[in-house]
Amino acid sequence: MTAATDPTLFSQPDASADPPRDADAVLEGLDPEQREVATTLHGPVCVLAGAGTGKTRAITHRIAYGVRAGILPPAGVLAVTFTSRAAGEMRGRLRQLGASGVQARTFHSAALRQLQFFWPRAVGGELPRLLERKVQLVAEAAARCRLRLDRNELRDLIGEIEWSKVTQTVPEDYPAVVTKSSRVPPRDPAETARVFGMYEQLKRDRSVIDFEDVLLLTVGVLQDRPDIADTVRGQYQHFVVDEYQDVSPLQQRLLELWVGDRQNLCVVGDASQTIYSFTGATPDHLLDFRTRHPDSTVVKLVRDYRSTPQVVHLANGLLSQATGRAAEHRLELVSQREAGPEPAYVEYADEPSEAEGTARRIRELIDSGVPASEIAVLYRINAQSEIYEQALVDADVPYQLRGAERFFERPEVREAGVALRSAARFGENDSLLDGAADLPSQVRAVLSGNGWTPEPPAGSGAVRDRWESLAALVRLAESLAASRSAAGKEAPTLGDFVAELDERANAQHAPTVEGVTLASLHSAKGLEWDAVFLTGLTEGMMPITHAKTDAQVEEERRLLYVGVTRARRHLTLSWALSRSPGGRGGRRPSRFLNGLRPGTSAPGARGAGGPGGIERGRSGGSRARKRRGPVQCRVCGRSLTDPGEMKLMRCEDCPSDMDEQLYERLREWRSEQAKQLGQPAYCVFTDKTLLAIAETVPDGEAELACISGVGARKLERFGADVLALCAGEELDAGEADESPQ
């Protein structure tokens, strides 16, 4: 893997820059894999994109190249993603690339547009009113079922209703389906089913639909009315789906109806970042894409432009210990950044000490020149934030909470919007604006009536949160005025500012709050910072206590992986041995850190080793570690990224120098071992591993250990037999039977 040399690979597009001059110019600055994504415009394409590898860049340049080259009509392209902000960012990038007119929407937004247009024709009359929030109606449904629920119980119940609908489960089937799925329901399934059924009845009685109904009804219309489905397919001939690992069964069904029997579909995702299975998301659609589309092109993006080699090495090591289907398809990232500091592992006596120590380290980073807005503290659940809020206040460090409430839905932001809109309309008669000559001073004057002051209030809590929201609006006004001035444009007015706020609210593009971000790991997905602190990494919190099954534990590992890959340069992982000062100190660091932090080992870990504090367990003296990092074909020298090719240490197409007799002897030996163990043959060694052994013919444990698929346990169990076979020795039945168990 060659290092990136183009600085544009690291930066966001410049909104003031001119669009590329032609289609070929759109491709400038893309790495070879990104260019492959951008230029493969026909047939099904699956892009497996690791964290920080520039997937949004690749797919926006793909669309722009197709449009600018005259291959894709802009109105015939539908790009779908999962958040309004991501869709808005995609539209902005496409405009900057000279590809305006492309539809970039969320699944719900695209479906709602179609449903509104076709409802009169398919059903008649107006589409039922869309229910913005479920909580009140679910609370009423619970009350009618004689249940009094608090806010958290209602939230859990809403989550179960939404999961049921995206998995296409009706109320009467919910108890059986939830049991079969091994899902751990928050309350009695029969009780949930009753409330779910009552909620659906109340919606019908009041002629309202919720967001899940938008997808369900659109699917119903497209299934029942082939003429309408043909009209939609006539409009859109080319589809791009971002974050494909997060699609639910319902979204997948809608996508299939949109696409029909055509092949122009590009999906982008990373199974290792599947962290929303509790909402119905599943990576199976991504992992099965090649099975459903045998002629598809698969492109893997593994060049990480976000994080330093030290952070990337830790991320790779974390996933090397993973199990399950997603782990089998993991991507080995290769950093394109210059070296940075090693990740820090910090153990504290108790949680207050952990919060204080974290705040102290953040203060040091800020004093060294790292902006507060480029620092994040991430934790497993929102309830962990309070102690860090107080610690940051004590350290005189500003912060912002993320994930608890959308910025534009905060009461103070809504009130500020009303005040600004009123001032924009009647500003000449508003004494508050006397002497306020430019936009920033006008916004400060208006918001002073809503609680904004030049200096922040002391302490933490609601008052400080309110001030931070208003301060973010002031900074946004300053930024808008500065950008207009730099572009030589006319100074913005209050009306311009209100229009900017409306546009951002529609796209959920909140302004940056100048403070350290406090966020749960789930709400950090899709974001990045220069410095990240992963806190509270103890057993019971990471993985969380209620993660009981292997699949649930592996999702927790992926959640930690997402947290690690948010960091560009500085990464700190910490845990506390007790909750309170003077406590017993019986907590243990997260099992996921075994084999990663110095002084620990992870038996059976696949492929961990090398720098960055990642260690492999040793049980037999001087056993060699496997090298991590770029793997090159030993025949032609090309960098390898495909796991099968990396196992063979050569390209699939390069000639093999395999010892065929040794390969057959290894296969016979493996078959006998599998029979004795009562396991499938691949549990001993896979075909690719046997092929690699037959090609390299190792003459010692160190060389055998360097072959992918030969871990510490298998080396100890089967190493002597394999080396004997490689040396041309014969194994008798007695020796084979005496293999250590």
Tell me what the structure shows.
Helix 12 links the parallel strand 6 and strand 7. The model is unreliable at 1-16, 605-630 and 734-741 (pLDDT under 50). The radius of gyration is 28 Å and the shape is globular. Helix 2 (32-39) crosses helix 3, helix 6 (135-144) packs across helix 9 (189-206) and helix 15 (309-320) packs antiparallel against helix 23 (550-564). By secondary structure, it is of the alpha/beta class. It is built from 29 helices and 18 strands. Helix content is 45%, strand content 11%. Strands 3-2-6-7-1-8 form a six-stranded parallel beta sheet, with helices on both faces. The two termini are 40 Å apart.
Produce the secondary structure layout.
Blueprint: H1 23-26, H2 32-39, E1 45-49, H3 55-68, E2 77-81, H4 84-96, E3 103-106, H5 107-122, E4 129-130, H6 135-144, H7 151-166, H8 174-180, H9 189-206, E5 208-209, H10 211-224, H11 226-235, E6 238-241, H12 249-259, E7 265-269, H13 284-287, H14 289-292, E8 297-301, E9 303-304, H15 309-320, H16 325-328, E10 334-335, E11 344-350, H17 351-367, E12 375-379, H18 385-394, E13 399-402, H19 411-426, H20 439-448, H21 462-486, H22 494-507, E14 516-520, E15 529-534, H23 550-564, E16 567-578, E17 631-632, E18 639-640, H24 643-648, H25 660-677, H26 687-696, H27 701-705, H28 712-726, H29 733-737
Parallel strand pairs: 1-7, 1-8, 2-3, 2-6, 4-5, 6-7, 9-10, 11-16, 12-14, 12-15, 13-14, 15-16
Antiparallel strand pairs: 17-18
